[in-house]
Design goal:
The structure is a homotetramer.
Chain A (H helix, E strand, L loop, with lengths): L3 H14 L8 H18 L5 H4 L2 H28 L4 H15 L2 H4 L9
Helix pairs in contact in A: 1-4, 2-4
């Protein structure tokens, strides 16, 4: 129904209509993003739910996780828009570079300390 | 060139080829995401660069920010994939709900404590 | 009334009495810490309150900030205890090293990209 | 050798001597704190090291964790100082309240969604 460009435009319009663009400087958006990442972390903080949760509570967790992941995503989209970053292009570039930096033959089953 | 579904599939394939899927449980991916959010925050930690940086250093900052934003995005994509969350749909839903919760007439120029 | 060693011991006892030590592995505590850092960030996300808040709301903010800072501190204390890290000693060492790395003559008024 | 009040004073002096106090507003310090939390998260992102690391690499991890925990602690101390928060008192208050909110009889072995 929608792609990333549509969503970016929708959020931009949402901000403009409410005169909220003035709040959306990079530092404010990063702090807001951190707030949402915190809520996401909280959902998973005490245990790996896949291990010992029942089917019902797993569904509830998945629903809540979906909301928090969406919140993080929205602030990331807005931040990228404000910074004039093409999210898809930037991420594609990074992933392509990761393919080169971590050849299959050498990194099979071995996690590097970090992806990028 | 690519949309979000392609990028999600590309990252999934990247993980499968390297036998890295075993590392990509939700908690591990959230910790990795936090690591990248930390690098993003660090870029903007001491001042609002838009205020007093020269044109040249702003370009350098924009380039570095692009890389960190991309890293956060990639882990978020992977996390959503592992949790079977449709990122675009979930974010669209959240934004639509925010439009209802924050009517233009009442919230013009007034930032709520949080978007969602 | 209390020093850091007392507080560390009090939290350890609190955890033991409730049989919560099993939840306090490093990864879980870091995720919990991230949750509290998120709440702290949220308090300051939209503007610098010192600029345009009234005296009353500044007091309210200071009170809420005090609670969130305390939550972050508590998880940090617990994490250090679990990892057998002497917080005061480790921080003193880092600060002493920073004094050497950033001589006053060269860094006066100039923020390094990071402290440590 | 040193207690928390000494460390707070030492960091305050360190900042004053370098004319860095102007950088230490709450938002900047929170962003810096997030940067250090990110480095801490990164150390533990891929697996629980206690499970399958050798003794040697556990020592290395413990050393690196000690440095990152110290960095988080230092920014937290500085933030508390700037916000005129008594860290020990605030944390003691929170822990005392947690003792009341989570009676041993009812919460033994059961992690609440969050401590505070």
């Amino acid at each position: 129904m929608s792609d990333l460009a549509d969503l970016t435009a929708k959020y931009r319009e949402f901000s403009k209509e409410r005169d909220w663009e003035k709040f959306h400087d990079p530092r404010s958006l990063i702090l807001a993003l951190v707030g949402e990442v915190g809520e996401l972390a909280e959902l998973f903080q005490w245990e790996d739910p896949e291990v010992n949760e029942s089917e019902i509570s797993r569904t509830a967790l998945q629903q809540r996780a979906s909301e928090e992941v969406a919140d993080v995503f929205l602030y990331l989209i807005r931040l990228a828009d404000v910074l004039q970053i093409d999210l898809l292009q930037a991420a594609n570039l990074k992933l392509t570079r990761a393919e080169e930096r971590f050849p299959i033959s050498r990194f099979s089953g071995i996690a590097p300390s970090k992806l990028a």
